[in-house]
Amino acid sequence: MSFTKTIKEECARNERDDRDILLAELAAIIRINGTILVPFFEMKGIRFNTSKYSTARRIFYLLKKVTGKDATLSQVQRGTIHKKTIEIELDDAMATRSLLLEIGLMDEQNNFVDKVPSKLLWGSNRSRAFLRGAFLMAGYLSSPEKSHHLELEVPSANAAKLIGRVMKKFDLVPKVQEKKDSVVLYVKDGDQIAKFLSLIEAFQSLLVFEDARALKDMRNQINRKINFETANLDKTVSAAMRQVKLIEELKKEGGFRYLAPELKELAHLRIVNPQATLKELGEMSQPPLSKSAVNHRLRKLVQIAENYFEK
Q1: Of 124, 136, 118, which is closest to residue 169 (Cα–Cα)?
Q2: 104 in Cβ contact with 56 (< 8 Å)
Q3: How buried is residue 297: exposed, middle or buried, by Cβ count under 10 Å (0-12/13-18/19+)?
Q4: CATH numbers and ranges of domains, the chain
Q5: What is the pLDDT along the chain (311 residues), one digit of tens a residue?
Q6: Which of these, 10, 63, 289, 293, has the minimum number of CB atoms within 10 Å of its CB?
Q7: Dist CA 196 CA 194 (whole Å)
Q8: Does residue 59 contact residue 88 with C-beta atoms inside 8 Å?
Q9: Do 12 and 57 form a contact (C-beta atoms < 8 A)?
């Protein structure tokens, strides 16, 4: 099951039953997916289409709670034999008209409009419900193990503008991309996506998202540390190989006779132990030396060797 489907199924199980909250959720669904039926210029009802049973049940539930009327559900074949959708239809002109008036898609003169009554989105709970309805019909969220990507693809610029305005009430700032027949609002920031899941009350999905994000961050930290340590090791090995090469050339050319006893001892230790760390070389020395002392003497050895071959 995709992560998007998991979230939508959780949204469809939301247990809030306050009519005003359910109306706000239904308002978003109607703006994105509702088809108003007006054969022969006379209001007949409203219809929705979805491929998901959980979403169909949710719309049926919302219509019943908000209008008090039962909708009908039917499965419809679309195109290929494998393409089926579920139609939810409220075949009641009066109930549909009242619903459209409440959500601002019709005025008292029965003209179709697109206004948002201020009461519809009063308070955070109604605005949250509106976003929940929008995600239910138009949302997508990538798998939490992958790069973060939340989007809402809606059929009109007006719907996109309204959803964006509601998101900004909660300090969510989606980017907008216009397509040929739709508008996409999208968010790629992990913190903002987590906040959105909390707003639409998809708390179980939020836990999954946060767990995956924490694991991903931990892996990235481990990889950065490994890369850092590998880079340091490469530098250490390269420095050691250069030291060995210079010291061996210095010995071959008779330059050891100019070395102080403590430098000559360390030079022998480095040649015999080319992979040894500074700490290990210090422990082999007599008497033992600190890392900084070993490093100082090796740098002096390299300097002597470089000066010797420049002459």
Answers
A1: 124
A2: no
A3: buried
A4: 3-201 (3.10.28.10), 223-310 (no CATH)
A5: 799 999 999 999 999 999 999 999 999 999 999 999 988 778 889 999 999 999 999 999 999 999 999 999 998 876 665 678 899 999 999 999 999 999 999 999 889 999 999 899 999 999 999 999 999 999 999 988 888 999 999 999 999 999 999 999 999 999 999 998 999 999 999 999 999 999 999 999 999 999 988 887 777 777 787 777 667 666 767 777 777 787 777 777 776 776 788 877 877 887 888 777 778 888 888 888 888 887 888 888 778 777 766 65
A6: 293
A7: 5
A8: yes
A9: yes
User: Of 99, 106, 107, 96, whose CA–CA distance to 24 is shortest?
Assistant: 99
Distances (CA, A) of 307 to 250, 252, 311: 10, 15, 7
Amino acid at 5: K
State which amino acid sits at residue 243: Q
Residue 77, token pair as written in the block? 């074949």
| 27: its two tokens | 């308002």
